[in-house]
Design a protein that fits this description.
Elements lengths: L2 H18 L5 H22 L6 H10 L8 H22 L6 H11 L28 H10 L9 H15 L6 H15 L12 H12 L8 H19 L3
Helix pairs in contact: 1-10, 4-5, 4-8, 5-8, 6-7, 7-8, 7-10, 9-10
Length: about 250
């Protein structure tokens, strides 16, 4: 663990503890949750190139609006992401462990625009930004290995292990499409289960997000986990600050 990461984790834990001592007006917290819900969907999809604005996405979700001159696939991606987030909330409410089955179910809910392959591992090899993910023949074994690893929070901070899980999942790249989207939903599921605030990966910072992923790919040297761990810790602190400001 770097000194910078250690300081970030200490800050996150102090603010998390402070948050438990606060009382929020129900209306204010509900408004925050609604803002976050729409921001999470917008940013995660915008990172992947969805052309809908945040206001347009709100109209699609809240009122089933079809925005003129925008791709139907972009609309379906919004609806699918909403449904996957709803599924993830079930995992949080009932503290359901994220096994292969649950991850594939999230992908099935999300990828409604491509139902023939939703929830199915890819059956071909591919290249992603100069990186070759796990060969398709090894995906079932690698996913089982990933999901069977139970993080030991006595030895590793939850934010460290959640970031590492995300890096490993994205390196495997088990699906033909939607890996980033489902991976970010999984991050928020794990954060909520560990009683940390969920985060939104701001599209304006997507280059930092991609660089953190690439640092673990090992294309430019030894795989590095710290960039993603530090970034996730910073995102959690931002949400803690926003929630503390509500009190």
């Amino acid at each position: 663990m770097s000194e910078a990461l250690e300081l970030l984790l200490c800050e996150a834990d102090k603010k998390k503890a402070a948050l438990t001592q606060k009382t929020f007006a129900p209306d204010a917290y509900d408004a925050y949750q609604e803002r976050f819900f729409y921001a999470e969907i917008y940013n995660s999809l915008a990172i992947e190139g969805n052309s809908l604005t945040q206001d347009e996405m709100i109209e699609v979700i809240a009122h089933d609006v079809v925005v003129p001159d925008k791709r139907l696939s972009d609309h379906l991606d919004v609806v699918g992401y909403r449904d996957a987030v709803s599924q993830s909330r079930i995992y949080v409410d009932y503290n359901i462990r994220l096994t292969e089955h649950e991850i594939r179910k999230l992908h099935y809910k999300m990828l409604i625009a491509h139902q023939a392959v939703s929830g199915e591992y890819r059956s071909y090899n591919m290249m992603i930004r100069g990186h070759r993910p796990t060969s398709y023949e090894k995906i079932p074994y690698k996913m089982l290995q990933l999901t069977e690893r139970i993080p030991n929070h006595e030895e590793e901070h939850p934010l460290e292990s959640i970031a590492f899980f995300h890096l490993r999942l994205e390196k495997i790249h088990p699906f033909g499409d939607g890996n980033g989207r489902v991976g970010r939903i999984i991050i928020n599921t794990m954060l909520a289960q560990a009683e940390y605030p969920q985060v939104s990966f701001d599209v304006r910072e997507k280059e930092r997000y991609y660089k953190a992923l690439e640092a673990y790919d090992g294309v430019r040297g030894n795989p590095q986990v710290l960039p993603m761990q530090e970034y996730l810790a910073e995102l959690v602190i931002r949400q803690l600050d926003e929630q503390l400001a509500l009190a």
